[in-house]
């Protein structure tokens, strides 16, 4: 990040490390706070692209929420490989941001969207929504 002072860069690196740590521990909701910090930092730095990245990460973390108690363990087990894949893709984005590699960040974001689409499909297939009125 050209023109960013060392303290700001250090703060961003610390946020990335915290997010990666929470991700490894499966604490996806804790990652949301870190991503919000990253978005605010990006806003202060005038980096619209980074704000966009943070919004996609926020969406990904929301998709990784633990299933509700009403859902069966079987459904949760079926989604574990997809959640693991999503965690890896998010880690790829965090590394790309840390390395300031925009092209790798974009590729990793595309992969996140593919995986979150799979996760949403699995969730909705296991818990079909009945519409009161047809669309």
Question: What does this protein structure show overall?
Answer:
By secondary structure, the protein is mainly alpha-helical. It has one domain: Four Helix Bundle (Hemerythrin (Met), subunit A) (Up-down Bundle), CATH 1.20.120. Helices cover 76% and strands 0% of the residues. It contains five helices and no strands. It has helices spanning 6-24, 28-44, 48-63, 73-98, 102-126. It is elongated. Residues 69-74 have low confidence and may be disordered.
Helicity level: over 70%
- Estimate what percentage of residues fall within beta strands: under 5%
Rg over CA atoms, rounded to whole Å, is: 16 Å
Please tally the β strands and state the result: 0
The coarse overall form would be elongated
* SSE sequence, one letter per element: HHHHH
CATH class descriptor name: Mainly Alpha
- Average pLDDT value? 71
- Quaternary structure classification: single chain
């Amino acid at each position: 990040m050209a023109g960013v002072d060392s303290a700001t860069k250090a703060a961003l690196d610390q946020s990335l490390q915290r997010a990666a740590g929470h991700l490894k521990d499966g604490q996806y909701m804790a990652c949301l706070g870190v991503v919000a910090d990253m978005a605010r930092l990006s806003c202060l730095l005038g980096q619209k692209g980074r704000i966009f990245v943070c919004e996609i990460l926020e969406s990904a973390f929301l998709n990784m929420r633990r299933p509700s108690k009403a859902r069966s363990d079987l459904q949760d087990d079926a989604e574990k490989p997809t959640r693991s894949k999503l965690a890896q893709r998010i880690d790829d984005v965090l590394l790309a941001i840390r390395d300031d590699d925009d092209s790798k960040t974009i590729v990793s974001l595309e992969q996140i969207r593919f995986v979150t689409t799979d996760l949403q499909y699995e969730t909705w297939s296991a818990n079909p929504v009945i519409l009161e009125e047809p669309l």
